[in-house]
Design goal:
The complex is a heterotrimer.
Chain A lengths: L6 E11 L4 E8 L13 E8 L2 E8 L10 E6 L7 H8 L5 E5 L13 E7 L4 H12 L4 E7 L8 H7 L4 E5 L8 H5 L6 E6 L2 H13 L7 E4 L10 E5 L4 E5 L5 H7 L18 E11 L7 H6 L2 E2 L5 E9 L2
Parallel strand pairs in A: 7-8, 7-10, 8-9, 10-11, 12-16
Antiparallel strand pairs in A: 1-2, 1-6, 2-5, 3-4, 3-6, 12-13, 14-15, 14-16
Chain B lengths: L19 H5 L17 E2 L19 H14 L4 E3 L4 H18 L4 E6 L2 E6 L4 E6 L10 H6 L5 E8 L2 E8 L8 H4 L4 H4 L11 H10 L7 E10 L10 H4 L11 H4 E13 L4 E12 H4 L3 H13 L2 H6 L6 H9 L16
Antiparallel strand pairs in B: 1-8, 2-7, 3-4, 4-5, 6-7, 6-10, 8-9, 9-10
Helix pairs in contact in B: 11-13
Chain C lengths: L25 E7 L2 H10 L3 H5 L1 E6 L8 H6 L4 E4 L3 H14 L4 E7 L1 H13 L8 E4 L5 E5 L5 E5 L1 E2 L1 E2 L6 E9 L4 E6 L12 E2 L2
Parallel strand pairs in C: 1-2, 1-4, 2-3, 4-5, 6-11
Antiparallel strand pairs in C: 6-7, 8-12, 9-10, 10-11
Helix pairs in contact in C: 4-5
The chains are: A alpha/beta, B alpha+beta, C alpha/beta.
Chain lengths: 321, 347, 202
């Protein structure tokens, strides 16, 4: 079995600076054909050849699922990160040929919902853009509450408020505006589903507030792609392929496994989908678990690791790969 | 490809039979001389031109007659086709998938012409020529799922994916191995498989679900399942069990080769892109014992599989009472010689 | 009478728990007959504001007035005792259509009552897995005849006769939440007239 979703060869046909932190990229097929259809909330994995280092980063599709001419994504520059977003910002230009994956959706709408209540923070707006486009086509009932730092950093605020003046509310941090979550969660009719995408703290705040207010777990949906965090280099033994590999400071364990020519399964590369789950055969040291796929007891068990985002510090780590 | 469609029945006088070519391409499900449940999934990619695994949706000589039988079942009991309200988008996904694939794989039988949302569908074997607006159900004579599955062999379970599970929220089920869509609609993966013995304990369904949840767009999968049916009855439904159950007692050593059928389900799984649902077509192929034994390898192997099958499975598959007579018939064709690995009859 | 213990069964057979107070803006409690005991036990561990935001709907059935005074005496914001489940349905639907997320639902008593009340809640979008249930009292089942689709209430023997088409049906553990019923299948299809002796459902 080959890893990841099927690939699409594309050409970058537009790069737009949305604001000082965010750029939008448009991809069309190099063979001139139509893009696959997808569902609101889906992402694609973009492959980058960052000066010899292969990076695969997931980005939410923000274009309308109805539009098969192209996919568009928005990338926020992360100056502290490992370089994927910097590569997109600094090196990806119109006309460049790239490879992206077929769409995968880990954040789809619950189509039974009587109402979709969406909460976005910053660049977390992107999956909602395709979800709203999908709902527009089916007369879906939604309400978006979108927190941004400042007016100039509010990506797509103007488009959203122009098109949906009654269903979109914007909150500016610099004007001390806050989403009044407690009130917002109070009085939503049965059958309302809640969606949140944004910084880690925001997701935790919304999930906890909903639980405290008695919202059933099944009605609360969130998506958080974790970028793999840099860390100290470490050594890993791959038992099945009988190789010893080094994981570099800005490399993820999954990337190091792939760089050694070992085919490992993956989908989201952001700690969410569970596809890359790997058995630990032996270890002497400590794990730095960063995923939200495994539960706490699995994290403590020392038996499993998600190599897309998690790391290790110590003497030896042996994986079933 | 030139298919001559049979004019045959799956009820009353039961004139169904397989041509030599249909026997040769029958999806014999046993690759060795014994059987136990397994997840046994593989990518649904073309294997051997002319085989049932070659196209996304196999069309064979039984197509026209099977669709006529389906229409009769639906006239008698419209509850065999149901879709919960949130599943219409998945129905369009399915319609699009089948039309695109059939038009590509069988250009002499099916044509699809698209101009934006204005679609023109031609189904020559069934004499259908319809123009409609994609995503506008008022322009079709039925809902999208019902429309296209009245024109496609096999049952269809359309599954919603949420809460890390799959939910049977829509379907067209008229050729089933004794389960009721009307009863099971709305159930999750573990619930609708609840009556299956042994497999839960073996963890089969947990592994299968994990696999299915990760099926990706453009990368369908498939597996086979099987049971036994007396008479070529496509509609072995629980709804009508009080009518067809008695037929199981009509086997005699003289008629068993003609009446007893091996029933094989080719199950495939496709991600539905617009809805993020999954479609699970279950295509039923029937073969008479006397047709099956024309290939010595199949005859020997089938005898051994039936002989060694655990009692629970023979009971669940509904042929425990008839097993001795089936074995007596099949044993004539088993000289004890070794069989070659794999499912193909002449390898 | 404590909660009922059942033998382990297949995955589609509902599993019942023990009611516990959960955080919520309001609380809907529906019970029949001995199910009242589960509500009374629940109320023992509840804070005052729980009952101040609670609505109790009770169908005494054969329990008569055994529990009614105690239930009413809990002082819930709303208390209703009705002659039958069917009579209470419009009230339940009205309460659910008015409710907002943050409602907690507690069901207790027979499988027929819990199943049907759960269906009302799921019809309006409440996830079934978030609904609490506790079985008390009769093990009678609500059965659907898979052949004629008719429902026979309060079935206590296996096999039983369909109250609509008259076929002799055996009682399966296969259960549909959508129908709020177990499945009954013809027991003598392959040997007409050979109907096994009835045994009490346990």
């Amino acid at each position: 079995m080959s890893s990841g979703a099927a690939k699409i060869a594309v050409k970058v046909t537009d790069v737009v600076e949305v604001n000082e932190l965010v750029k939008r990229f448009r991809f069309e097929r190099t063979d001139g054909g139509l893009m696959p259809t997808f569902s609101g909330g889906a992402h694609t994995v973009v492959e980058m050849d960052d000066h010899g280092t292969r990076r695969l980063n997931p980005y939410s599709l923000m274009s309308s699922p109805q539009d098969r001419s192209a996919f568009t994504i928005s990338v926020r520059r992360d100056d502290e990160g490992r370089g994927g977003s910097l590569f997109m910002h600094n090196h990806v230009k119109t006309g460049m040929e790239m490879t992206i994956s077929n769409p995968v959706n880990l954040f789809s709408l619950d189509l039974r919902a009587r109402k979709h209540l969406m909460i976005a923070g910053g660049i977390g707006i992107t999956p909602f853009l395709s979800q709203i486009a999908q709902l527009d086509n089916s007369n879906g009932n939604f309400e978006l509450h979108y927190a941004v730092r400042t007016k100039s950093l509010g990506s797509y605020v103007d488009e959203l408020t122009a098109k949906h003046p009654n269903d979109v509310k914007i909150y500016y941090d610099d004007q001390k505006e806050m989403i009044d979550l407690e009130n917002l969660l109070d009085g939503q009719p049965l059958g309302t589903h809640l969606y949140v995408c944004g910084p880690k703290g925001m997701i935790e705040w919304v999930r906890k507030s909903a639980a405290d207010a008695g919202w059933p777990r099944e009605t609360v949906h969130y998506e958080e792609f974790l970028a793999p965090e840099p860390g100290k280099p470490f050594e890993v033994k791959l038992a099945i392929s009988n190789k010893v590999i080094q994981v570099g400071e800005t490399q993820s364990l999954l990337e190091a496994i792939e760089a050694a020519g070992v085919d490992a399964p993956y989908l989201c590369r952001g700690g969410a989908c569970g596809m890359c789950e790997t058995e630990v055969i032996g270890y002497d040291g400590k794990f730095i678990h960063n995923d939200h796929w495994l539960d706490d007891s699995e994290h403590l068990s020392g038996k499993k690791i998600m190599p897309c985002v998690s790391r290790f510090e110590g003497k030896t780590l042996v994986l079933d790969r | 490809m030139n298919i001559r469609f049979n004019d045959e029945t799956f009820r009353n006088d039961y004139t169904f039979k397989n041509s030599d070519a249909a026997i040769k391409r029958f999806p014999f499900p046993f690759d060795k001389d014994s059987y136990m449940y397994a997840v046994n999934m593989e990518p649904h990619t073309p294997v051997r031109e002319g085989s049932v695994y070659y196209n996304s949706f196999d069309v064979d000589e039984h197509y026209v007659s099977e669709m006529r039988d389906r229409a009769m079942v639906l006239d008698e009991d419209p509850l065999r086709c149901q879709s919960l309200p949130h599943m219409e988008l998945a129905g369009w996904d399915l319609l699009e998938l089948i039309m695109v694939e059939k038009a590509k794989d069988y250009p002499d039988l099916f044509e699809l012409h698209r101009d934006g949302d204005n679609w023109h569908w031609i189904n020559k074997p069934l004499g259908i020529d319809d123009k409609f607006t994609f995503m506008d159900a008022t322009t079709l004579p039925y809902g999208p799922m019902e429309y296209i599955t009245r024109q496609t062999q096999g049952d269809f379970c359309v599954l919603d994916q949420r809460d890390d599970n799959l939910w049977m929220d829509a379907g067209m089920v008229t050729t089933q191995a004794d389960w009721s869509l009307d009863f099971d609609i709305g159930m999750n993966f573990f619930e609708w498989h609840a009556p299956v013995p042994l497999a839960h304990e073996k963890g089969i369904f947990v592994r299968a679900l994990k696999f299915l949840l990760n099926i990706q767009q453009g990368a369908p999968a498939r597996r086979l399942n099987w049971t036994m049916t007396v008479n070529p009855l496509l509609d072995t439904s629980p709804e009508n069990y009080h009518k067809w159950g008695i037929q199981k007692t009509t086997l005699t050593p003289e008629n068993i080769g003609n009446k007893q059928h091996l029933r094989v389900e080719l199950q495939t799984f496709f991600r539905l892109p617009r809805s993020n649902g999954l479609v699970f077509p279950i295509r039923c192929y029937l073969i008479k014992l006397e047709e099956l034994v024309t290939y010595p390898k199949w005859a020997r192997r089938f005898h051994r599989v039936i002989r060694d099958l655990p009692v629970e499975l023979a009971t669940y598959k509904g042929f425990i009472d008839n097993r001795p007579m089936i074995l007596e018939y099949l044993s004539q064709f088993d000289d004890g010689a070794e069989t070659s690995p794999g499912v193909w009859p002449e390898d | 009478m404590a909660k009922t213990e059942f033998e382990p069964s297949i995955k589609s057979r509902p599993v019942y728990g023990e009611l516990e107070v959960r955080a919520g803006k309001s609380h809907l409690l529906i019970a029949d007959a001995e199910g009242a005991g589960a509500i009374l036990d629940l109320a023992k561990s509840a804070q005052k504001d729980f009952l101040a935001n609670a609505h109790i709907i009770y169908i005494p059935k054969n329990a008569g007035d055994k529990y009614t005074a105690q239930l009413e005496g809990l002082g819930a914001r709303q208390y209703y005792a009705g002659p039958s489940y069917e009579a209470a349905v419009p009230r339940i639907q009205r309460v659910l259509s008015d409710a907002s997320n943050g409602l907690q639902i507690y069901l207790a008593g027979t499988e027929g009552l819990m199943g049907q009340a759960m269906r009302e809640a799921t019809n309006i979008g409440y996830p079934y897995s978030a609904i609490q249930t506790e079985h008390r009292g009769s093990k009678a089942r609500r059965m659907q005849c898979v052949h004629c689709k008719g429902i026979t209430e309060d079935v206590t023997t296996d096999p039983f006769e369909c109250s609509h088409c008259g076929l002799n049906l055996f009682v399966r553990d296969h259960y549909s939440r959508r129908l709020a019923a177990f499945q009954g299948v013809c027991v003598d299809a392959e040997d007409p007239g050979n109907v096994p002796d009835k045994v009490e459902i346990t």
